[in-house]
Each structure stands twice: as C-alpha cells, then as structure tokens.
Amino acid sequence: MCSSLDASSAGKASGGLEEHDERVVRDISGNVAVDTLVEFWAAVCSLNSSSKSELVVRIPPGSAFDDPRQFERVANYITECSDCCDMLGSDVFLTTKHPALDDDNRRSASPELVLKRGADNDFGFGDDDDDDWEIDLSILDKYKEADDAKEALAEGSVGDVPVDDEDVMKKTFAWVQSVVVELGVCPFTSSSAARAGVPMGDVRYQVDRASNAEHGYAAYWREVQLLLSERDERKLSTTLLIVPELFHKSADAFDAFSATLTSALTSLTLEKDLQLVFFHPQYCFRDGASRFGSNDGGGESAETASSDTAAANYARRSPWGMINLLRTGQVRAAQRVIPTGLVYRQNETTLQEIGSGKLEQMLRKRDWAPLKNRPPVDRRTNPVFAAADDFRRQQDATADSDIE
Q1: How far apart are the C-alpha atoms of 247 and 219, rounded to whole Å?
Q2: Cα–Cα distance, 73 to 67 (Å, whole number)
Q3: Exposed (0-12), middle (13-18) or buried (19+): which is 387, by Cβ within 10 Å?
Q4: The whole model's pTM is what?
C-alpha cells in the first residue's frame, strides 16, 4: 500500500530496536513542501510496519524551509491531517526541529520532522487513573448500532471492491469512457478516456490499495510529485488516483480526508500548480438538501425528470473513491472558455434525462452498457462542447508550434 524508500540506518537502541533512521528530502518536483510530504508519509508508513522507534525526515539547508515560518506551515498542515489518521497522533508522534529555534533540544543543523513511536503522553495520567471513571457502555452501543446501520445502507449502494487491480482499472476506465467522455461530463476530453486536457495529453490511471488515511496521503503526495516533475503536459496531462479501499463505505470520511488535500492547496501555496476533483460512490454536491440521501434504484417518469435534482450527483459518483489531479494552468484556461457553472448545468440536464434511478442501478452493477443505446453528445451543435473543441484545437496547435 505504501512503498518505503531507501533510508540509511543511524544506530540501534539497547533493546534491539533500531533507534532511528534518517530520510533526506530530495528536490524532485521543484516544490520543497511536496517533496517533504512524500518522504514524511512514506516515513509514517515505514515506522508503523517496522521495529524502529524513531525516524527523522531531514530537509537539507538551502530550501524555503530555512525560513522557520515556511517550515511551520508544513508542520501545521501535518497536524491537521492527523485528525483523519489511524496512527499519527495516537501511536506515532511528530516533533519538529529547526536551526532557528531557541530550545536547545529542538535546535538542529537543518529542518527536521522527527517521528517517534509510542511516545509518552503529557497529560499526567497513570495506568490506574481511569479506575474512578464510570462509563455507561450502552451509550457506545447506541453509536455502534447507528454506525452499523449506516454501513449496511452503504453496502447496498457501493458494493465490495474487486481484489484484482486490473478489474478495478477496467471498471474505472469503463466509467470514465461512458460517463465522463461520452456523456460529456468533462467537455475537455477526447473520444477516448486515455486522453484529456488542453492541450490534449495522456491521462495517468493509478490504483493504490490504501486502506487508511496515512497510506492514502502517501499515495496522493507521490502522485503530486510525479505530476509536478513532468513538465511535458502532452506526456502527462492529468492523473486519476484510484483508491478503492479508502473510506469506500463512508462518504463523510472520504470528504474529511479530501478536505485536508484541498486545504493544502492554500496553506502550502500549491494552487498555482494543482487543482483537485474528488469522486466517490456516495458523492453529493453541497448545493441543496434535495441532493442528499440514497436513491432506491428505481426509475423516473418523464414528468419527474426535470425535478430529479439528485441526478447531477452522478457526475461525481464513481465506482469507488478517486482523486483527479489537474494542472492549474489548464483549469484556468478552460474556465475562461466555459464557466464551471455552465458545465454543471449542462451535466445536470444530461443526467436528469437519464434519471438518478437508472444511474444508481448502473453504479451498483458497475455496468454502463445501457448508456450505449444513448447517442453521444453532439459536440458540433451544442455550444458548450463546440466551444471546448475549438479551444482545445487552438491549444493543441499552439503546443505543436512550441515543439517545432
């Protein structure tokens, strides 16, 4: 789930545990925050699965993190992420060190993120301090019953995850081709799910079996680093990170996780390079209560189609959780041609014509063959798609001339 990069051993503890390893951040993406977070989340995964008691992520001198305020931003962001984590903040703890700190114990030659396993808490509680606490366990049982009921409802909607990555990839590609491309959910796609963007370039599909937030963060930041390090947008236009086991049955948990990724765009000043779109089998747009709740899988009559406000959600309801990494330059250029609100209204019209009931049936079966009977969007006469195609051709011609 989380690949562990090479690390150099830095000693062993007296009890046989390796005292700590050191991971040195390398400049790969051109953004020290991104490169640091790649190493940091790999370190968290590595520490949890090893006998090490401590692991240090060191940022060499000469980066933006020489400024303690910049370094503090990434440390604060990690703290924000710990709210979604299983290990970080409960079994694994973070301490920061920096050359500018006054505390001798936390001053170091270069900025460091120090991870320690099982650090003692500072709350002053002993092993027996909970003897006087009287807890009504029936309250916890009620919460568990509610959670079980919610999970049972989700089970019928999202289904189980295939064990074969190729099966996951095949069904994902079929959904993108049928819904995103042929229904025109994204106007800036080609006739194939393999290419998209302005200028047109390759789409990277990556399946990762992350099953908790730590591994999800590790997978995500690796993909961010890869996207930013590839300067040729023709070779890598956009990335679709597929995380089929990450909060698969909890849209709320996936939304909370996604919110931390979005917040990094601002707090770590990544907005100029990166934009994000999220997909989940229970996704709901946040623009009205009528969009919330599950559909029973039934059909809609012609009379109710226009009021089927839940149908628009299926522009983002994918077979499993996915994160679309987009280049900001492409997004901004596309928005100047077609405002986001116009695309949303076009999708709402298209999906209402099909109906949320039929869309839900296809999602549950992960079979979009019924859409084959529907003619593809008319990209010549529809003003939204005609404008997108004209703009894409202009961008492709510009890119070609730049290469020449």
Answers
A1: 14
A2: 10
A3: middle
A4: 0.82
Triad 245, 205, 243: Cα angle to 5°? 10
Of 169, 206, 294, give the one whose Cα is nearest residue 3. 206
Distance, in Å, from the CA atom of 177 to the CA atom of 195, rounded to the nearest integer, reads: 10
Residue that is written with structure tokens 């903040």 in the block: 89
As a whole number of angstroms, the distance between CA 42 and CA 215 comes to 8
H-helix segments, 49-84: 68-81
Q: Write the CA distances from 155 to 150, 158, 161, integer angstroms.
A: 9, 6, 11
CA distances from 257 to 89, 215, 263, 322, 400 (A): 15, 12, 10, 12, 39
| 46 within 8 A of 1, measured Cβ to Cβ | no
First-to-final CA distance of the chain = 42
Euclidean distance between CA atoms 5 and 225, whole angstroms = 14
- Do the beta carbons of residue 343 and residue 307 sit within 8 Å? no
Q: Which amino acid is at 197?
A: G
How far is 328 from 270, CA to CA, in rounded Å? 9
**Digit-coded pLDDT (tens) for 22-37:** 999 999 999 999 999 9
DSSP-based three-state secondary structure for 54: strand
Tens-place pLDDT, residues 143-178: 555 555 445 444 545 789 999 999 999 999 999 999
Residue labelled with tokens 């798609």: 385
Closest among 274, 205, 281 to 247, alpha carbons compared: 281
Q: Are 91 and 53 in contact (CB under 8 A)?
A: no
> What is the C-alpha to C-alpha distance for residues 73 and 338, in angstroms, rounded to an integer?
34
Q: Which residues pair with 351 in a beta bridge?
A: none
